[in-house]
Design brief:
563 residues, alpha/beta, Leucine-rich repeat, LRR (right-handed beta-alpha superhelix), 18-stranded parallel beta sheet, 18 helices, 18 strands
Length: 563
C-alpha cells in the first residue's frame, strides 16, 4: 500500500490533518500511520501532543505489549494515557499479577523513549530521520502503581495532570523514591494520590513534603493521611482540595489554605476541638464515617458522636455557597447555624443511618437553602411506624426540596409515604426504592401531584400497577428520566402512555418477568426517539431490546441535522 500512495504535498497533508475529527480519534490516527511515509510524517507533526489513549478496555497483556512497542516510535503524539485494571481476570492472571506485568511493560516502553532521547542528545544519532520521538505527555492516569519507576520517566516539562492509585499498600507510596519522583514533576497542576483499595492506609509526611514543592499545583486529592500529619505542608496556592483524614486527638487545621474554593473532606471519626477550614471556601462536601463497628451501634447518641462536626467551624464560612454533608449534620442546632450563612444557596444532606436522619429532621423545614435529602438505611435499623410517620411529616414540610431519595432499609414496609410528598412542588428528582416504594395504588397516585418532576425512580413499588403507571405518565409530562424497576406492571397497558413521554432520555423497565408482555410490545415505545439509554432486563428479551435500540439509532440518525 505504501508504494501506491501518490500524495506528494506534505503541507497539504498537514493542512488536512488540522481537522480534529482526524487527529482526535486514536483508531483513525493509527490507520493513517500505516498508510505511507508521507501520511506518517504528517500525522506525527499534526497530532503531536494531541492523541488521547484510554486503555480501559485493554484486558490482554499481549495487546498491552503491542501498545508499549508502539510508544517509542510515536511518543511525541501522546497527550494523555489512562491505564485501568480490568474488571475480570484475563490471560489467566490475577488482578495483582496483571497489574505487576502491565506496569513493567509500560515502564520498559518509557525507558526506551528516555534512552533514545539520551542517545540522540549525546550525538550518537546519525541522520535527522533517526531523531527519536520526545514524550510530551500532559496527562497520565493509572490505578496500578507499586513503585517509583513509572513516575521517574514521566516528562516533567509537559505533565500537568497525574492520577495514581497505589497497589499493595502504602509502604511503596511512602518510599523516598516515590517522594523524589513526585517532587520532580514540577509542572503538575492536578495531582491525585489514592490507594487501590478502600482501607484507610495512611500516607506519610514524606509524601506531603514532596507535594509541598509543587508550586504550580492548583488541584490535589490525597487519601488517606494520618491524624498527626503536618497538613501545613499542603501548598497554599491550592484552589481545589480533596482530602481523606483519619481523625484523632489532633485538630484538623486547614485555615492556611486561603486559595481553596472547592473542598471535599472524607473523615474517619469526628474532628477534634479547634479544627478549622479554609475561610474562603465556596463549595464544600464533607463525608463522615465512624469506626468499623459504627454500623452496629444501637444508641443514636453514640452513633452521632462518631459523626459529630461541631468542632469544624462550619458557622464561620462566610463565603460558602454550596454545602453537601454525608452523615455529619445530625444535630438541629448545627443546621440552624448553617442556615445563617450569608451566601449559602444550596444544602444537600445525605444519611447512611436512619437514626442520624431522624435526629436532624426537625430542623429541615427551617433550612431554606435545603435542596436535597438522601437517606439510605439498613434493615437492622429501620424506623418503626411512629418514627416513619414523624420523619415523613418533616420531609413533607421541607418545601424547598428539589431532590429526594429514600432507599432500602430506611422506613417500615408498606407505610403510605407518598401522601406526604404532595406539597413538594419544587421537587425535580425523586427516588423511592424497595421498602420505600409505594405498595398501595391509592398512595402511589399521590405522585401525580408532582408535575414538575424531571426524574422519577421507583423500585419495588408494587402499588405502581398498570393503571397507576398510566396516570403517572399522563400527569408527569416533564419527565426526562423514568425508572420502574420490579413494580406492579402486569401487561402492556401502560406502554402507550409511557411512549407518549417523547422527551424521555432514559427509560428503565427492569424486573417485570411475570408480566404478560410479548417482545413485540416494546414497539409501543417507538415514539421515544430522544432515548439515550433503555433497560428492560427480565421484561423483554435481550434480542428484542437490541433490535429496538438498532431501529432507534436509525431513527435518530434520520432526524439529526446535516453537518
Amino acid at each position: 500500500m505504501m508504494q501506491d500512495c501518490q500524495v506528494t504535498s506534505f503541507q497539504a497533508l498537514c493542512t488536512a490533518l488540522q481537522h480534529p475529527a482526524l487527529t482526535a480519534d486514536p483508531q483513525t490516527v493509527c490507520c493513517l500511520l500505516q498508510t505511507c511515509r508521507s501520511w506518517r510524517a504528517a500525522v506525527q507533526q499534526a497530532a503531536a501532543g494531541t492523541t488521547v489513549i484510554d486503555l480501559r478496555s485493554l484486558h490482554s497483556i499481549a495487546k498491552l505489549s503491542q501498545f508499549a512497542a508502539w510508544i517509542p516510535r510515536h511518543a511525541g503524539m501522546l497527550a494523555e494515557v489512562s491505564l485501568t485494571l480490568p474488571q475480570t481476570e484475563d490471560d489467566g492472571l490475577s488482578t495483582q499479577h496483571y497489574a505487576t506485568a502491565a506496569e513493567q511493560i509500560i515502564l520498559l516502553a518509557l525507558q526506551n523513549v528516555a534512552a533514545a532521547a539520551a542517545s540522540a542528545a549525546a550525538g550518537s544519532s546519525g541522520t535527522p530521520a533517526a531523531v527519536p520521538q520526545l514524550l510530551r505527555l500532559q496527562v497520565f492516569c493509572t490505578d496500578f502503581l507499586s513503585g517509583a519507576g513509572l513516575l521517574a520517566f514521566l516528562p516533567a516539562a509537559t505533565l500537568t495532570k497525574l492520577s495514581v492509585k497505589y497497589m499493595g499498600g502504602y509502604p511503596s507510596a511512602n518510599s523516598p523514591a516515590i517522594s523524589q519522583a513526585l517532587a520532580g514533576l514540577t509542572s503538575l497542576k492536578e495531582l491525585s494520590l489514592q490507594h487501590y483499595y478502600a482501607e484507610p492506609i495512611r500516607l506519610s509526611g514524606r509524601c506531603l513534603q514532596a507535594v509541598s514543592q509543587l508550586s504550580c499545583l492548583s488541584a490535589l486529592c490525597i487519601g488517606w493521611v494520618a491524624e498527626d500529619a503536618d497538613l501545613s505542608l499542603l501548598p497554599q496556592q491550592l484552589q481545589q482540595l480533596e482530602l481523606m483524614v483519619v481523625c484523632g486527638k489532633q485538630a484538623l487545621q486547614l485555615q492556611h489554605l486561603t486559595g481553596v474554593r472547592n473542598l471535599k473532606l472524607e473523615l474517619r471519626g469526628a474532628p477534634a476541638p479547634h479544627s478549622s477550614l479554609p475561610q474562603h471556601v465556596a463549595l464544600l462536601t464533607i463525608s463522615t464515617w465512624g469506626d468499623e463497628d459504627t454500623d452496629e451501634l444501637e444508641d443514636p447518641t453514640a452513633l452521632w458522636q462518631q459523626h459529630n462536626l461541631q468542632h469544624l467551624g462550619l458557622g464561620s464560612l462566610r463565603q460558602l455557597v454550596r454545602l453537601q454533608v454525608i452523615n455529619g449534620l445530625a444535630e438541629p442546632q448545627m443546621l440552624h447555624r448553617v442556615a445563617c450563612l450569608p451566601r449559602l444557596e444550596q444544602v444537600l444532606l445525605c444519611y447512611s443511618h436512619s437514626s442520624l436522619a431522624a435526629r436532624a429532621a426537625p430542623a429541615w423545614q427551617h433550612l431554606p437553602q435545603l435542596k436535597g435529602i438522601d437517606i439510605e438505611g439498613s434493615t437492622s435499623a429501620m424506623l418503626d411506624r411512629s418514627e416513619t410517620e414523624e420523619m415523613m411529616q418533616y420531609i413533607g414540610a421541607a418545601t424547598t426540596l428539589t431532590s429526594l431519595r429514600l432507599a432500602s432499609g430506611v422506613m417500615l414496609d408498606y407505610y403510605p409515604i407518598c401522601q406526604h410528598l404532595r406539597g413538594l412542588q419544587q421537587l425535580r428528582e425523586l427516588e423511592l426504592s424497595h421498602a420505600e416504594g409505594p405498595s398501595l395504588q391509592r398512595d402511589a397516585l399521590n405522585l401525580t401531584a408532582l408535575t414538575g418532576l424531571t426524574q422519577l425512580v421507583l423500585a419495588g413499588a408494587t402499588g405502581v400497577n398498570d393503571t397507576c403507571a398510566v396516570a403517572i405518565a399522563s400527569w408527569l409530562r416533564q419527565l426526562r428520566h423514568l425508572e420502574l424497576r420490579s413494580c406492579g406492571l402486569v401487561s402492556a397497558a401502560a406502554l402507550p402512555a409511557i411512549g407518549s413521554l417523547t422527551q424521555l432520555r432514559t427509560l428503565v423497565l427492569d424486573g417485570h418477568a411475570e408480566a404478560e408482555l410479548e417482545d413485540e410490545d416494546i414497539l409501543l415505545l417507538s415514539s421515544l426517539t430522544q432515548l439515550q439509554a433503555i433497560g428492560a432486563h427480565e421484561t423483554f428479551s435481550d434480542e428484542a431490546v437490541e433490535a429496538f435500540v438498532h431501529d432507534l439509532h436509525i431513527a435518530q440518525a434520520a432526524e439529526a441535522p446535516p453537518e
